[in-house]
TrEMBL record:
The gene is NPTX1. GO terms for molecular function: metal ion binding. It comes from the Eukaryota. Residues 130-176 form a coiled coil. One of its GO terms (cellular component) is glutamatergic synapse. It comes from Phocoena sinus. GO terms for biological process: axonogenesis involved in innervation. Its cofactor is Ca(2+). Residues 226-428 form the Pentraxin (PTX) domain. Residues 93-122 are annotated as: Disordered. Keywords: Calcium, Coiled coil, Disulfide bond, Glycoprotein, Metal-binding, Signal. CDD domains: PTX. Residues 1-22 form the signal peptide. This is Neuronal pentraxin 1.
Length: 432
């Protein structure tokens, strides 16, 4: 009887202390404290600090929860406002573009016009700009999450300061985007104004990307030289990376890499190799609604890759000059093969190897519609055909996995331009 009366007294005391403070707090949690079996729980609670201290703790917790709710609501409101404005601008831009095409009979480039051997896509500058801004914001937020994870694993005042500074930069970017969106809404001044706004936006984004890249370099010294990825957040004609080393003359090759992209239509050009007199000596490209293709000396083979699902995929292509035999592997499994792809044509030396852009001239002539959008890592080239077992070891991150004997993935071999960024990456940690 005494034990039951004590239990009821404790329950009433808890209800009185919580009172209205438990209202509007959403889901609740019970906080338990270890008490000896033969002890009086009410007495133990009072001895631990008394009713006043308990009430103070409850009120403090309630205040913390309310502050967090206000912060979350504020962030949601900002996101909704930005999304609404982007949607309105994109819709308006589409309507303006449709009206313009009705007046001029359409603006699609005719086949064969211009110097671009890979074609072009019709697009509205304002709508494309807004779409790219959304992709950039998402990319920067992902990088912030990576930085926060690194900070948790490597707790120090330096990493915490780095995280806070990166968050500040992203906040600045969101404010600038909102400002640009308002300008686009109010302007609607035609192609010239669209071009001017696009230049301003890209300049601001490039500047922020460069500053964030400088922050991220602080993590570089703590990782091996091959544990990094390249990020191309925008479909532009100025973001790319260049491999410092050229290719030798090759009568066979295997090229492998990790890719992650959700771009549409087409992920773009993961890499291109141009030599004097032939811009399409060796190119991997997925452009428009076409399947991914491998080009050797301007000869084309269609590949069975499906990789634009926003997940990491490992791909390999092998080729030999004898009969032009090729094989394609995705995630360690052969998915296609063929022959008569540039047979008896050796890959020429002394060229320029670019990641993220398709070259129309030696080392340049980039077209934004063919640019790669996404992330790329562990790009390796061998001067021979790898066996299926060797390809499988690469795709499964086996300790037996080989590095390229012609091009090996290393930070010291890569130069980046135009706001493309490097970030810590380990394939096995991403896929396991």
């Amino acid at each position: 009887m005494l034990a039951g009366r004590a239990a009821r007294t404790c329950a009433l005391l808890a209800l009185c202390l919580l009172g209205s403070g438990a209202q509007d707090l959403g889901p609740t949690r019970f906080i338990c404290t270890s008490v000896p079996v033969d002890a009086d729980m009410c007495a133990a609670s009072v001895a631990a600090g008394g009713a006043e201290e308990l009430r103070s703790n409850v009120l403090q917790l309630r205040e913390t929860v309310l502050q967090q709710k206000e912060t979350i609501l504020s962030q949601k409101e900002t996101i909704r406002e930005l999304t609404t404005k982007l949607g309105r601008c994109e819709s308006q831009s589409t309507l303006d573009a449709s009206a313009g095409e009705a007046r001029t009979g359409g603006g699609r480039k005719q086949p064969g016009s211009g110097k671009n051997t890979m074609g072009d896509l019709s697009r509205t500058p304002a709508a494309e700009t807004l779409s790219q801004l959304g992709q950039t914001l998402q990319s920067l937020k992902t990088r912030l999450e990576n930085l926060e994870q690194y900070s948790r694993l490597n707790s120090s005042s330096q990493t915490n300061s780095l995280k806070d500074l990166l968050q500040s930069k992203i906040d600045d970017l969101e404010r600038q985007v909102l400002s640009r969106v308002n300008t686009l809404e109010e302007g609607k001044g035609g192609p010239r104004n669209d071009t001017e706004e696009r230049v301003k936006i890209e300049s601001a984004l490039t500047s922020l990307h460069q500053r964030i890249s400088e922050l991220e370099k602080g993590q570089k010294d703590n990782r091996p030289g091959d544990k990094f990825q390249l990020t191309f957040p925008l479909r532009t004609n100025y973001m790319y990376a260049k491999v410092k080393k050229s290719l030798p003359e090759m009568y066979a090759f295997t090229v492998c890499m990790w890719l992650k992209s959700s771009a549409a239509p087409g992920v773009g050009t993961p890499f291109s190799y141009a030599v004097p007199g032939q811009a399409n000596e060796l190119v991997l490209i997925e452009w428009g609604n076409n399947p991914m293709e491998i080009l050797i000396n301007d000869k084309v083979a269609k590949l069975p890759f499906v990789i634009n699902d926003g997940k990491w995929h490992h791909i390999c292509i092998t080729w030999t000059t004898r009969d032009g035999v090729w094989e394609a592997y995705q995630d360690g499994t052969q998915g296609g093969n063929g022959e008569n792809l540039a047979p008896y044509h050796p890959i020429k030396p002394q060229g320029v190897l670019v990641l993220g852009q398709e070259q129309d001239t030696l080392g340049g002539g980039f077209d934004a519609t063919q640019a790669f959008v996404g992330e790329l890592a562990h790009f390796n080239i061998w001067d021979r055909k790898l066996t299926p077992g060797e390809v499988y070891n690469l795709a499964t991150c086996s300790t037996k996995a080989l590095s390229g004997n012609v091009i090996a993935w290393s930070e010291s071999h890569i130069e980046i331009y135009g706001g493309a960024t490097k970030w810590t990456f380990e394939a096995c940690r991403q896929i396991n």
